[in-house]
Design brief:
Elements: E1 6-11, H1 15-26, E2 30-36, H2 40-49, E3 57-59, H3 62-66, E4 73-76, H4 83-92, E5 96-99, H5 107-120, E6 124-126, H6 134-143, E7 152-162, H7 165-170, H8 182-186, H9 188-198, E8 206-215, E9 221-229, E10 235-241, E11 243-254, E12 257-261, E13 272-279, E14 282-283, E15 290-291, E16 295-300, H10 305-323, H11 330-350, E17 356-357
Parallel strand pairs: 1-2, 1-4, 2-3, 4-5, 5-6, 7-10
Antiparallel strand pairs: 7-11, 8-9, 8-17, 9-10, 11-12, 12-13, 13-16, 14-15
Helix pairs in contact: 1-10, 4-5, 5-11, 9-11
């Protein structure tokens, strides 16, 4: 444990909070000191069930966590409809904000969160874990190798899982008053973020949702797809769904190389992750195969990617505290660009799949 670990308060006892409480415990520079819920008993049970330190304080409200002087930063896994209220409140109390994705229901809401964080000098980061895995850095090295990969031309991403009937009827991600973005916010966030990452966060010229849309009776998106188009000819597509077999794929194709990942958001293993890379491929004689075949690249990880995310967030907070540095603007910018495209896809859907200019 670091000499002065960043002390986290957790707002809410959502299922994902179990994963993050473990990640905070595994991180060498962070610790959980408080958990808040609308029910004091629920907060107490969360602390006991997840093996948090005995001194962890249970609070019967989110306000109590924000008012706790021992809390340096908050992790906010609340429904998306509550993000603006509680992230802004946290920033206004000087708490650094690690916010679950999707960050907000719209870029206007996210802007109010980011403005609050900027005005009080607190660090903001969203909970996209895969960006912090060492595999991601290695993939970026290869994508940036002009001699082996070349300019990107085509990107495709998909994220799906086959939801149970209980999920489709009861989960907050299917409720318009809690998470009205549905699969677009929950799964599409990863797809859109992966596409942006692959092209260096260059925004497309326009976005067109595809007429492959499924809504529940309340109008929440259960499945959707979209295409992105850049002025230089790049194109990207994604598909996200609560209605089909698990996929977490990313494919990136350049003029000279290609990269394929099958387990982007959640690697098959915690201690390592792999991807395939090919450069200079062509058909073998009589089109019977590829030459050369893709290389499998495996990258080890000392900690699970969620713990690496927490560790990086805590490192930035420590730098702000000890060196009086400004918050790192990289993470708010990534979140805002992703949210912009979520908004554009939603707008295209609502406009009967017409293109939306960025």
């Amino acid at each position: 444990m670091a000499e002065h670990p960043i002390r986290f308060g957790i707002l809410g006892c959502a299922n994902i909070a179990r994963k993050l409480s473990r990640a905070i415990s595994l991180s060498p520079n962070a610790t959980v000191v408080a958990v808040g819920s609308r029910s004091l008993d629920k907060a107490q049970r969360f602390i006991a069930d997840n093996g948090l330190p005995p001194a962890t304080r249970a609070h019967g409200s989110y306000e109590a966590v924000l008012d706790d002087p021992a809390v340096d930063a908050v992790y906010v896994p609340l429904p998306t409809s509550l993000h603006e209220r509680w992230a802004v409140a946290a920033a206004e109390r000087g708490k650094h904000v690690l916010l679950e994705k999707p960050t907000a229901l719209s870029v206007a809401e996210l802007d109010r969160i980011l403005e609050a964080c900027a005005s009080t000098g607190v660090q903001f980061m969203d909970g996209t874990m895969w960006l912090h895995h060492p595999r991601t850095a290695r993939m970026k090295e290869l994508l940036s190798d002009a001699g082996r990969f070349g300019p990107p031309k085509v990107v495709h991403s998909s994220f799906s899982f086959l939801a149970s009937s209980e999920f489709l009827n009861k989960d907050i991600r299917t409720k318009p008053d809690l998470d009205s973005l549905g699969a677009l916010g929950d799964l599409g966030w990863y797809c859109i973020g992966a596409i942006l990452w692959a092209v260096g966060y260059e925004l497309p010229a326009f976005v067109t949702a595809l007429p492959a849309l499924h809504l529940n009776q309340a109008g929440v998106i259960l499945s959707c797809a979209s295409s992105f188009h850049w002025d230089d000819g790049k194109v990207a597509t994604f598909h996200c769904s609560f209605l089909s077999q698990v996929t977490m794929d990313l494919s990136v194709h350049g003029t000279m190389g290609s990269l394929q990942v099958e387990d982007l958001a959640i690697p098959y293993q915690e201690d390592s992750a792999s991807f395939e890379f090919n450069s200079g491929a062509h058909f073998a004689e009589l089109h019977i195969g590829w030459s050369p075949k893709p290389d499998k690249v495996t990258v080890a990880a000392d900690l699970p990617q969620e713990a690496l995310m927490v560790s990086e967030f805590a490192r930035l907070v420590q730098m702000i505290r000890s060196s009086h540095r400004r918050p790192d603007p990289k993470w708010p910018d990534i979140s805002r660009r992703t949210q912009l495209l979520v908004d554009a896809v939603k707008q295209s859907i609502e406009n009967n799949f017409k293109p939306v200019n960025l």
